[in-house]
């Protein structure tokens, strides 16, 4: 079984000497004695996408061929979406425990849907996501943990939920991001964390395999190459991702708001196109389950909340988090997606690339170690 995104920060903390941190990935054996670790999360750098980008990415091509660093396969948590994965990375916990169970979630007791990317003050981050992060634990152990993030990320609910305890270093679009990362690494021992969304953005807007996606791959590879070339002898670079992705063809898209049979009995729609949470009108759950199971047969797995939890999709689920999961859970299989054009911004329906479901193309991610 591959390791998990949940193992990355505890293993890095163990490498940096934090007592009680479990090195489940065996980083100490493969990396040796270092006093500083640079970690970069490349949004959308799925394991199964690596062969498609090597023509534009010399460093990643060398890693894939065995010529540089060490490469292994991990898995992200479900749903395979950025908010869930970032909090799984930060806390080392499965989604059922940390509670960030999707891209958007219904706030129990209301008809409000929380978009985790746009989340600011409500609900309070420490209530919506109650677990400590590994950035907290590093700080408590006296190990500097710095996160270089775009200025507008800082203070958001998702940033607090995933990275609480880090020293936040704001960055700007015109910064030399590689230089700033290197300067932070050289300034003091500990962990320096970075993030880039470029590859994922191009996959969503233009599609995996598009010219724009390949250009983003070249930019990401250039960033990683500069970081690797500048590593001091007492440092290691870890590169991982939050999910993979795939393109969804026009004829594989189902719009629940265009089909009265799918909209019937649904009170609140949450999740995202590859994983839908349907919160139903009182007494309508069984009818919604039956209609969706029939109409999406062969294109999605349709569960009750209880079935999804029993199947272990989210890991053990805290009772407090159960109401965040829909009464009906729809997990797309193959290359389908469920749009919700009356519930979500119109740009969502115009995207080309998607992720969120449980296919290998979405769940498998790399871990790259460079010295």
From TrEMBL:
InterPro entries: Alkaline_phosphatase_core_sf, Phosphodiest/P_Trfase. SUPFAM superfamilies: Alkaline phosphatase-like (SSF53649). It holds the Pfam family Phosphodiest. It comes from the Bacteria. This is Alkaline phosphatase family protein. It comes from Mycobacterium paragordonae. The lineage of its organism: Bacteria, Bacillati, Actinomycetota, Actinomycetes, Mycobacteriales.
């Amino acid at each position: 079984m591959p390791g998990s995104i949940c193992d990355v920060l505890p293993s890095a903390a163990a490498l940096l000497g934090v007592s009680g941190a479990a090195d489940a990935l065996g980083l100490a054996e493969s990396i040796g004695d270092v006093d500083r670790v640079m970690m970069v999360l490349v949004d959308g750098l799925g394991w199964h996408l690596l062969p498609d980008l090597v023509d534009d990415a010399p460093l990643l091509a060398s890693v894939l061929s065995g010529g540089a660093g060490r490469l292994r396969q991990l898995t992200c948590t479900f749903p395979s979406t950025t908010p869930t994965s970032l909090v799984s990375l930060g806390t080392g916990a499965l989604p059922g425990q940390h509670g960030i169970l999707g891209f958007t979630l219904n706030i129990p007791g209301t008809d409000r849907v929380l978009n985790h990317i746009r989340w600011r003050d409500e609900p309070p981050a420490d209530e919506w996501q109650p677990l400590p992060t590994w950035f907290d634990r590093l700080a408590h152990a006296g190990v500097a943990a710095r996160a270089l993030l775009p200025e507008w990320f800082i203070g958001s609910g998702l940033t607090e939920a995933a990275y609480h305890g880090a020293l936040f270093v704001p960055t700007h679009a015109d910064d030399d991001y590689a230089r700033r990362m290197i300067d932070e690494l050289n300034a003091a021992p500990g962990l320096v964390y970075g993030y880039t969304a470029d590859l994922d953005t191009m996959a969503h807007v233009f599609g995996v395999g598009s010219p724009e996606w390949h250009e983003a791959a070249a930019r990401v590879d250039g960033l990683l190459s500069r970081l690797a070339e500048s590593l001091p002898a007492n440092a290691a670079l870890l590169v991982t991702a939050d999910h993979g992705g795939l393109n969804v063809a026009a004829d594989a898209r189902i719009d629940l708001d265009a089909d009265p049979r799918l909209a019937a009995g649904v009170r609140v729609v949450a999740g995202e196109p590859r994983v839908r949470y349907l919160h139903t009108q009182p007494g309508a759950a069984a009818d919604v389950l039956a209609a969706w199971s029939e109409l999406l047969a062969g294109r999605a797995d349709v569960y009750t909340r209880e079935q999804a939890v029993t199947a272990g999709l989210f890991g053990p689920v805290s009772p407090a988090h159960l109401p965040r999961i829909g009464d009906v859970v729809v997990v797309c299989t193959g290359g389908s997606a469920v749009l919700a054009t009356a519930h979500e911004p119109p740009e969502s329906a115009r995207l080309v690339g998607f992720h969120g479901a449980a296919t290998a193309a979405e769940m498998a991610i790399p871990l790259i170690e460079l010295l």
